Amino acid sequence: MLKARKAAVKSPWVFPGDLPDASILGTSLDHQHSEVRTKLKLPSDFVVHSLRQTMLTRIGEAGADAFTIMRIAGHSSVTVSQRYVHPTPENMERAFDRLQKLNALKQEEAANEAKAEAAAVNANSPSLPAKVATSKIDRSRKPPQVIAFKRTGP
Q1: Which in 10, 36, 64, 154 has the greatest CB count within 10 A?
Q2: Tell me, what's the pLDDT at 89?
Q3: What whole-number distance in Å separates Cα of residue 133 and Cα of residue 118?
Q4: For the chain, which residues make up each domain, given as ranges?
Q5: Half-sphere exposure of 5 (CA within 13 A, CB side)
């Protein structure tokens, strides 16, 4: 019955103890970790904290920014989280690809909005010629010439 109650209650601890509001004792965890490390033939400098560091590094490699890592890890400063973000050429290329896609989406949204506005104006004033929404400025046309007139007489 105790096991069923333990499973039903979620613990806030990564390594919960026997009671839902208590963590496992550090000495017990260290002992278990030591046994597992020995059985798996891991180096002695492999500590439990290495798992946390590996997870945060992999989140950074997956493209998470330092602010996201800071929230996940509970760091007090983004400076600490920056240690886990290692920009590679591939990650930087992906960032530019995402920026390019975002810019294309924003441009498409603006063009659709302009078309909708033009359609609304044209629907209210059928005598006016249809407006064409464009996102590029035609710089091949020359600007209109300004002609100055001199006033003559009184």
Answers
A1: 64
A2: 84
A3: 7
A4: 49-86, 91-124
A5: 6
The three-state secondary structure class of 23 is strand
Q: How far is CA 54 from CA 12, 101, 145, 153, in A?
A: 21, 31, 67, 89
Q: What is the mean pLDDT of residues 111-119?
A: 89
Long-range contacts of 85-93 (CB under 8 A, 24+ apart): 85/60, 86/57, 86/60, 86/61, 88/61, 91/61, 91/63
63 sits in the region (left: phi over 0; alpha: psi -120 to 50; else beta) called left
The type of residue at 100 is Q
Identify any residues that bridge with 16 across adjacent strands, giving them in sequence order.
23
Confidence at residue 70, expressed as pLDDT on a 0 to 100 scale? 92
Confidence of residue 33 (pLDDT cuts 50, 70, 90): confident
